Amino acid sequence: MTSLRPRVLVLAGCLALAFTGVLGRLGWLQIVRHADLAALAERQYSRTVVLHAQRGPIVDRQGLALATSSPAESLFAQPRAVGDPVRVAARLAPLLGAPEAEIHAQLTSGRAFLWLRRKLPPSVAASVRALREPGLGFLPEPLRLYPNRELAAHVIGFDGVDGGLEGIERAFNDTLSGTPGKAVVGRDALGREVVTEATLQAPAPGQGVMLTLDRTIQYLAEREIDAAWRRTQAKAAMAVAMDPRTGDVLAIAIRPTFNPNTFLDVPARDVWRNRAVTDPFEPGSTFKVILAAAALEEGVVRPDDRIWAENGQITIARTTIHDWKKYGWLTFGEVLQNSSNVGSIKVGLSLGRDRYYQYMTAFGFGSPTGIGLAGESRGMLRDPQRWSALSLPTMSIGQEVSVTALQMVAAFGAIANGGVLMQPRLVRSLFDAEGRETRRFEPRAVRQVVSPETAHTLTRLMTQVVAAGTGHNAAIAGYEVAGKTGTAQKLDPVTRRYSRTPGVLSFVGFAPADEPRIVMLVMLDEPKNEKWGSEAAAPIFSAIGAEVLRYLDVPPRDTAPLAIVTGDSTAGRVRPAGATAIEPAIAEGAPVMPELRGRTLRQALTTLAPLGVAVQLDGRGRVVQQSPAPGAPIETETSVRLTLVGAAAR
Questions:
Q1: Given 144, 176, 211, which residue is the final one in a domain?
Q2: What's the pTM?
Q3: At what angle do helices 452-468 and 601-608 cross, to 10 degrees?
Q4: Which domain holds residue 587?
Q5: Residues known to be catalytic
């Protein structure tokens, strides 16, 4: 008994120590580690899944939908709860349009949770739900839709699983995305996977974005650009239209394009790129307008100053630069009207390096416009200290400098707006789910680049470019157009010289010239069957501009609208309609044929307008022959034939 007692005491002590240790461990786990262990237990029997909110809509300036969201469901699987992966894979494959082996591999992955397909159409989701297979479930995820397909695709962009990837969808992703919610996918008490869906936090929808784009103007621009791109087999084509008074971008039409509903189907990812803001190019002769603005503002030249054009060539720094025609004496207005390289270079040399650079930067070149889209290029404008002896002459004709389409439109918009440069604006406002405006983006004037007087003078010179110069194909019946053509060669990467093959053909202008409502650039990149900007880009400007001005209810001014009728001449037959201030000669109460020789096409048609005669045109330029002859009586149903001559314009 004596020897047994110590053993009992030792055993009791050990038990007491063990019990104390267990109590201490329980206290540690239940008090100190309670929060951590509770979270671990939660993770063991449930999984929290993020629910994406419905993205806010994107609308045009009229409130018409450009991007919307539709209810959809995403299919998930809990592989451990799937009964027979082989059978389930075989049943799912035809519904999801996926290989059976791929689905089987997912179902046998051993993972606790995985997405099988995101944002299924309602019909597909209904078919999968009808299978009643354990281990499969659905969670709501809105489906992004672009109801107009390719329309404005480069501006709108598109979104993916993780949000906006291009365009406005990317730039305003945080605004459009809203606040995500949470859902729980759980397990039962024995740890087996079960499909239970319960929302912990409902997602809050995103805000909407109203753009400055006009869906109708966008359509008109895309229709013409698409036709020209296909007809000329150009590498790329674009039209960018803006309201010069506010800087509102009305249209950005780009080819090639894509359908944002199926953006992954494009053969090359660079098709997604918004070339109007990301791709700089040498502007060529359109840049002579910037030179003209600087020279007029600085008093270096006046419109009627005469300049010797050296019979079409000039040599500087051992490099000879040619005109497309051998000109002699030209007024400065005629230098711009005929796009003379020699005349422009002489003006540039008189202006000087530093002053020219000052105005180029003032017009916004060398800096991003701040439109807010990802990847915007600043173009290329080197500091004058890095210019060579040839830089000033070549920059005077739009070489050795690169610009974006949006920069060019904004710069011409400044001239149209009395010399005030407006920042391009693509977003007008943001609005909530109830349609209430939450933020407004007002037009912003950047700076006064040139005086209103200079802008007015330059506008008159640019109207002559269209009325009687290289831009005659940009004319819009009933409206005065101001603009400039451009034909820019590209540097050959092998020879490091400018290639003779067509490069960038463009026209930039605005209308009506006296009260501009639209400024627009049209550009074709490396067309296969066009050589000059005047022949390729200017007619596109005319076609788009005529429709846009009609859509905007801008009344025709003091020129006669033309109705196209059938005929066999090169330019077709046109019938002037409507009286003008210019009256034809009258002899003894009967109208007679006026003298038209030497007049531009616009002047001739304006003179003939009150007579209501059919006009047949042959050629382009100024009238050199006419039938009937001047002074001949005009009988009923008289048909007037005009022969015009003018060299192919640059």
A1: 211
A2: 0.76
A3: 80
A4: 562-645
A5: 285
